[in-house]
Amino acid sequence: MADLDVARFVRSARTNLRRRMARSPIAFVLSGGGSQGSFEVGVLRYLYDDLGLRPAILVGSSVGAIIAAKLAEGDDEETGRRAIDELEAIWRGLESNRDMWLTEPWLDKLRAQATWASSLRGRAGEHGTAGSQARVVMRMLGEIVRNPPETDGTVEALRAAMRAKSLLNMEPVRGIVEEKLSPELMQQSGLTLRVGAVSLESGELRYIDQHGRLYARDGTELGVDPVSVHDAVLASASIPVVFPPKFMGGEHYVDGGVREILPLALAFNGLGAGHIFAVVASAPGVDAWGDASDRGLFDIARRVSADIGPDETLRKEIDPPRGWGRRVTVIVPEVDVHDALTIDPELIAASIDYGYMRAADVLLDLDDDQRALSVEIARTRMRLRAARGPIPGLLQPDAADADRDPYAEARELARLEELVAARRAAGAPLPPGGCGIDDA
Question: What is the pTM of this model?
Fold first, then answer.
């Protein structure tokens, strides 16, 4: 498609979509995905700013609950306060992993032991997809159980691990939720909010609204005492094993994604949405294994329960057997710019920008060339960040600066400028700031 044709197509598609969405209430449904909520922020920025859409209904699980709750505060026309601006400011204000999570003392002790630290260095290359850093840690715990080391204090640390409730604590997340989310504004905005969490005691998926009222999975109000909205959001974000359960209303709750990664069914069946925009934080799929003949019980259990099972759940939620029909538009990334436990300002910015472009590609039905450009811009920014130095993570807390190609950064920057210029020339939407490239 010629550049002029792309620009004309974008204008026409944008106008038609705005006209169609003006007819009925809109719902935004947001999946879990840890820090990969950055992609969702970019998608939402496009929906708000380029298309001018505003939701009447917001449903989220895990990090999607945090995002949904913030947007449920609504906007203030008198002061000019906009929830989308404050939401993006939260993500762009994150500077390091410690802004999202802190390791529990037992894990700190394990990471300090020689045997464990050596194993971590050997496994550092295994992470890269959503949540896999935590899964690698769990697999290594299983290996230590089978073959416990005899020296260096690892066994003592492992005994503490067996009594622990999580790998990490979520004090930084709690601080963000309590400081940045206002239940009072949510209750005054007139918007409908639902966040999902799963009770460990009953095993049931429950939803909580902006008033703290609890609902069953089918949307029926339970008629129990309301809970704190802050507690509900934290419960929804309590990824099992990674973070500890949240106690509220007499039960312990964990991430709603345990049962429903993308909480689309409630919005589709029970909240009166005319059209639903469902945003998935991470790309479906699992990393391929090599020969599994030497894999043990712990490896197989982890593979099925933490990799294959959740991926199958997400696939069915995105595309159920009978489909969602024209009422639902699902926006899914084709590439994960960073994993679910990584906070790195450059990668978060790249992920937000990719979400913006991916939303335009999907919602305006842009051609394959523009979709490929979006992905390649994201991948180039990932390589550019890698060229600038190591990215500390759960498995690489004190990553050393390895030998690097001295020309890699300049090469990737030139490539990025070329790609952004191509998308701009075509007239396809670009995020504010042009993917970090100076417009001049």
Answer: 0.88
